[in-house]
Amino acid sequence: MTTLYQERREDATVGMQTGETLVEIDGLKTYYGGSGMFSGKPVKAVDDVSFDVHRGETLGLVGESGCGKSTLGRTLMQLETATAGDVRYDGTDITTLSGKNLKEWRQNVQMVFQDPDSSLNTRMTVGEIIMEPLNVHGWKTPQKRRERVRALLDIVGLAEEHYYRYPFQFSGGQKQRVGIARALALEPDFLVLDEPVSALDVSVQAKILNLLDDLQDEFGLTYLLIAHDLSVVEHICDRVAVMYLGKIMEIGPVDAIFDDPANPYTNSLLSAIPEPDPTLKKSRITLRGTPPSPRDPPAGCVFSTRCPFKIRPEKYEDLDDDVWEAVEVFREVLRERSDVTKSVSERVRELLGMETKGMDVDEVVEDAFGGLNTPSDVRQTIDEAVEYVERDDLASAQETLRDEFGSVCEREQPEQHQVGDTGRVSRCHRHREEYMDTQEYRATHDFS
Amino acid sequence: MSDSQYAPDSRVDEEALLSVDNLQTAFFTDKETIRAVDGVSFEISRGESVGIVGESGSGKSVTARSIMGLVDSPGRIVGGSIQYKGRELVDNTEKDWQQIRGGEIAMVFQDPLSSLNPVYTVGNQIKESLRLHQGMRGREATQKAIELLEDVGIPDAPRRIDEYPHQFSGGMRQRAVIAVALACDPDLLICDEPTTALDVTIQAQILDLLHELKEEKNIGIMFITHDMGVIAEVADRVNVMYAGELVEKAPVDELFSNPKHPYTQGLLESIPSRNERGSELTTIEGEVPTPKEPATYCRFAPRCPKAFDDCEQVHPVPVAVDESADEHEAACLLYPEDVNQSEAVELHRSREDATEQEVPE
Amino acid sequence: MSVNETKNDSIVTRVKENPGPAARWGAVMAFLLLLEFGAVWSAIMSLPWGVPVNGIADVLPAAIGGVITGIAGVFADVGNALASVPTLLEREWIPNQGYHVPGEGWQGTFLGLEPAYAWLIRLTVVYVYAAVTLYWAWRGYMTFRRHYRYADWTPGDDMVDRFRGHNWGRFGLVIVAAFLVMALFAPVVSPTTQSQNMTSPYAHQIEYFNDDAGEVQTITVGTANVGSASKGDRQNFGVWSYDEVDRFHPFGTLTTGKDLFTFMAFGSRISLFIGLFASALAGGIALSLALLTSYYKGLVDLATVLTSDAFSAMPRLLVLIMLVVVLQDHWISDIYSGAFLLAFLFGIWGWMGLWRAIRGPSFQIVENEWVTAAKGFGDRPWSIVKKHVAPYVIGYLLIYLSMSLGGYIIGSAGLAYLGLGVTAPTPELGRAIAAGQSFIITDSWHISVFPGVMITLIVLGFNALGDGIRDAIDPQSSSGDSAGEAAAAGGGA
Q1: Domain ends where: C257, C276, C292?
Q2: Is there a single domain that holds both residue C361 and residue C250?
Q3: Residue C278 domain-assigned?
């Protein structure tokens, strides 16, 4: 390839070994909406994220839908505007770039998209698609551009006659190859891969992953791999960051995280992966409920509404797990009923007094606690809360429950704590000295 | 049960609930004929979960739709038989189908957002099914609907009954779809990639739910997916499909520990978690073909690392992989293992000739 | 295909490699075009070049101005010379002249044919020529596609193929093509000329055989028109008739005695001009706005929505009538006798519906990741939108345009019917309908009916064409193969 890439390759191997930082993200926030006359609360897609990406490594970014990983990727590409914080690429703060500088900088970072059908313009030939970035930047001469496109087609494993074909005539895997070729056209250092293989079949996925690996070795690329398929991440990443509701919950080397996860969310995520080995009967932590809306994240730890490792108040530390679960379910129900993201008609109904929040709450309690041996103090608090609900006073009901069953998880946002000595950080209150650490907790509690 | 024709019979538990025999479904377009399902046979009994695994283009979705009679033109079932509780389904009229769908066989599709009608409340949609098959109305129907939502694990069911699908999250929607499907106590549940569009933690919830329901109600489940991990969790027996044909059938433990067909082996090997971390993944060369001509040869042969000359001449049929394993079959000329190659080829050839099939051009 | 370094040759080198098909096609096409060469040049010469040239010359100092006018004069001479090259389809080749002497038959005719048949032959020649040229142009496209295009398949091919199989669309295309030919060749197809019939009838004279006097006499066209008026049952010159001075009228005459076919042929020019100009204007505005709002969304979209709603809220017909009346004495009303003003107003007031219709699709198209990818390599907004959004939106736009075009034609006819809009003596179909409406139940029914049927056919043709385009563009239409394949894939697994 070009000498430029050769130099970079050497840089990258050196960088890999010395852990040189390519991208520094500091306190990044990307909020949608919230700043306009007609909007409600903003959607906190990325909420105070800080981490580094080292030169030459593959950093995986995992999380479920709505956690903000795609938004983070796009903010790094400056396709979304950051609301606060900064991103330093090789020393320069890119959130302040604009105009010509921004356009020039774009040659350094490119993206590979998830959906091969919508990431390639179906009216353009493959050759035109790959040549487009070169045209936009006026790269050398048209003749040289054509040569480069041909070379790129060869690198990604396509044939030269594909130059004049249209995306429609290709399979999913081949379309992704075209997307990768287009991303490489401007010789970037850093590639953001936004779920590049999730739309592909398993066997095709394997080929594309191998290709990405080879390209990284050959050109000294740095990857940020955004994925929701943890087995893919486990396979090709060096480090992994786990995101939930806009926050990084855990980040560290892939071996450490997959073999011995420290964060409760990472634990739940890993145990939820179905293993292709039927003889493996693992104890799975099944999370209850759904993630809260990013418009209204919980006060305190974002995972507190679903965390199976949640810190309990001292007097309930030995409470039966099922009863505790029922309490949490009940609190979740109340939380949803008081959800701020109501539709206009619901707000109107509320104003007109037509909506009753207290409807059928007895049935809900029965469904949650039926058949359980509930201790009397728990029962008492629940009944108190039910009374409030029947009087349509959800706020007091929630407060009662919070006072009785709440803990530091709901009051304070956890900080990132160093775990072990491999450079891993995890965001959880349990890493504080006064509480039982997650690994210990997992060992002592049965999660089947 | 809605119809006395299907009244429980003491023999039902021994008989297969669903028996598919040599099913063939083809799509006839101007240019060509696509044989999406080309000779597929399997069985499902009560209380068991049968998985169908394959990549895109293997024909697994079309199989499911054929069983439900949902294959629209330009496609139609062109051969074979589908027997449900002893009754033939292939020549059903639309009226016959309306009795069966929902009341006997229910289907859960991949995309919950498009399976539920966005302008009706979820409660309404469940009650519609109840009204059609069991004639329930009013308060009784609402109560049953609330019960169903609780059964599938949706909290705060009384409030949720009156909400619209867009107010549910993805996982909740899929649960609601399952509730609609189970509203009328079907005996067979067909799930077409129900968890592919969901996050992994939600997927875990849905898989747990399906397991519970299977135990509680003793229904048969046909589970279609391309995710081997999910199959390992959910299925009791597995059928592997490739290019419209069944290439391997086995109990789930057996399949994962002892895959016999080269395609299954290749498929399992390319899964990232079965490879060492950081190593290069093993892949299968080439691409899945679209089956257009009748199979007079092995469709996997062009990509098979173990192919030999006869593979281009003889069409393999599912045979037991060796004498002892009668539950494990593979459609490959290498099997049965305990006889030599030419005898095996002969066996396949003779079985193939016995079951000649012609798809009209 | 052999692989070599110089594979992206331009089309010139590709043609050189395989000159056969191109040469054959080119020769025939050149011949066909040569036949009408003079007509093309005279059309070019008829444009008002004088206005800008003289305008510039006046502004600049005398010497340079003189040089410019001198050069312009040379061009004009050359142009005129080229324009005078004889063309195939001049009316003089097959004139429909002659007069009838009782007892002796037709005199002074072309090849001894009755004027009626002469005219018919000329009409046929024109349409045959048009059909052959259009067919040959189509052949050219197919030759290019088969022999000279590198890509062996493009998305456009699918669309063209789908259109070819769409009967209703092809019917629409045929009708639209027929009217375009009629409008384009109006001077040739009509039995009389425009100046003779409509603008200055008293400046022309014709010969005829005066029965009373028993000899050949000349008379001005204007006077003849007085005698050939169709006024209902009293006096009528209907379809396929000769009038008193032996002029042939294929569609009869108007109440003023002028030939209806000529009126309709030139009237269709006006109608099509109004329709096409207004569509281009409205479509251009709608397209630009759609591209703008879909890219920027937010406030820009809100502003455009408010503007479009404000415009739509005005009672369009009344505003049009008011503006036409107010601007009557303005110079803009003189261009094309008010047709230009009308077209302009239709365009300005017509973009709202179009923009609304394509706003949805353009928002959807912008969501595609290829637009994000283009932003990702730093392309400018206008360039992104032009390359990645416009080609898809234009398809939808064409569909809606084909329907609204019919609306514009009907609108202008309606206004002319009310006496506004295009003024006499410029022909406009609506005026003819107005003039003939009291005679519908009489023998002179042709005055209203023929223009009315023509308008209906034009609009029907455009609507059918729009239907055809819609089905051609839509990849999900049932006539395609792709639907079958999608179904075979079983819905996504």
Answers
A1: C257
A2: no
A3: yes
Is A278 in Cβ contact with B233 (below 8 Å)?
yes
Which of C237, C257, C277 is a domain's end point? C257
Report yes or no on C360 lying in a domain: yes
All residues of chain C having their beta carbon less than 8 Å from the beta carbon of residue A119 are 368-370, 373
Length of chain B: 361
Cβ <8 Å between C373 and A136: no
CA-only gyration radius of chain B, Å:
21
Residue A124 with chain C: CB contacts under 8 Å: 387
- My answer on whether C427 and C405 are in the same domain is yes
CA of B10 vs chain A CAs: smallest distance (Å):
32
Q: Which residue, among B259, B266, B250, has the nearest Cα to B307 in the 3D structure?
A: B266
Q: What residue in B sits closest to A367 (Cα-Cα)?
A: B150
| C284 and C411 share one domain | yes
In angstroms, the CA C420 to CA C434 distance is 11
Tell whether C14 is covered by a domain: no
Q: Is C492 on the interface with A (CB under 8 A)?
A: no
Q: Which of C428, C113, C126 is nearest to C248 (CA)?
A: C113
SS3 C452: helix
Tokens 């406009």 map to which residue?
A: C428
Q: Domain A3-272 classified CATH 3.40.50.300?
A: yes
Could you list the residue range(s) of the whole structural domain that residue C233 is in?
Answer: 196-257
Dist. CA B63–CA B302, nearest whole Å: 24
Centre a 10 Å sphere on the Cβ of residue B353 and count the other Cβ atoms it contains: 9
- C246/C224 same-domain check: yes
Beta carbons of B140 and B187 less than 8 angstroms apart: no
Model pLDDT for residues B186-242, shown as the tens digit of each residue: 889 999 988 887 888 888 888 888 888 888 888 899 999 888 888 888 899 999 999
Mean pLDDT by 10 residues, chain A (448 residues): 52 57 88 65 86 90 85 88 88 83 87 88 88 88 88 88 84 89 90 88 84 89 88 87 91 89 88 80 74 81 86 80 81 74 60 58 75 80 82 81 84 85 85 80 69
Q: How far is CA B114 from the centre of its chain?
A: 20
Number of domains in chain C: 3
Domain co-membership, C200 together with C305: no
Q: Does C382 touch chain A (CB under 8 A)?
A: no
The answer to the question of residue C309 being in a domain is yes
Query: Which of B28, B30, B108, B292 should be substituted to probe chain C, the one whose Cβ sees the most C Cβ atoms within 10 Å?
Result: B30
Q: Kindly identify which residue of chain A lies nearest to residue B147, measuring between CA atoms.
A: A367
Same domain, C224 and C355: no
* C224 and C294, same domain (yes or no): no
pLDDT in tens, B131-162: 888 888 888 889 889 888 888 888 778 888 88
Q: Do A164 and C150 touch (CB under 8 A)?
A: yes
| CATH number of the domain where residue C370 is located | 1.10.3720.10
Chain A residues near any Cβ of chain C (below 8 Å): 74, 77, 79, 102-104, 106-107, 110-111, 113-115, 118-125, 132-133, 136-137, 146, 160-161, 163-166, 168-169, 179, 182, 186
Closest residue by Cα to residue A57 from A16, A17, A10 = A16
Phi, psi at residue A54, to the nearest 5°? -90, 150
ipTM of the prediction: 0.80
C353 shares a domain with C277: yes
- Contact check, Cβ <8 Å, B155/A367: yes
Q: Where in chain A is the domain with CATH 3.40.50.300?
A: 3-272
Chain C residue nearest residue A151, CA to CA: C5
Q: Which one of A57, A65, A235 would you mutate to disrupt binding with B, by most B Cβ within 10 Å of its Cβ?
A: A235
Give chains near B: 3+ CB pairs under 8 A: A, C
Q: Does B29 touch chain C (CB under 8 A)?
A: yes
* Beta carbons within 10 angstroms of residue B269's beta carbon: 16
> What span, in angstroms and rounded, lies between the C-alpha atoms of C391 and C387?
7
Mean pLDDT of B296-320: 84
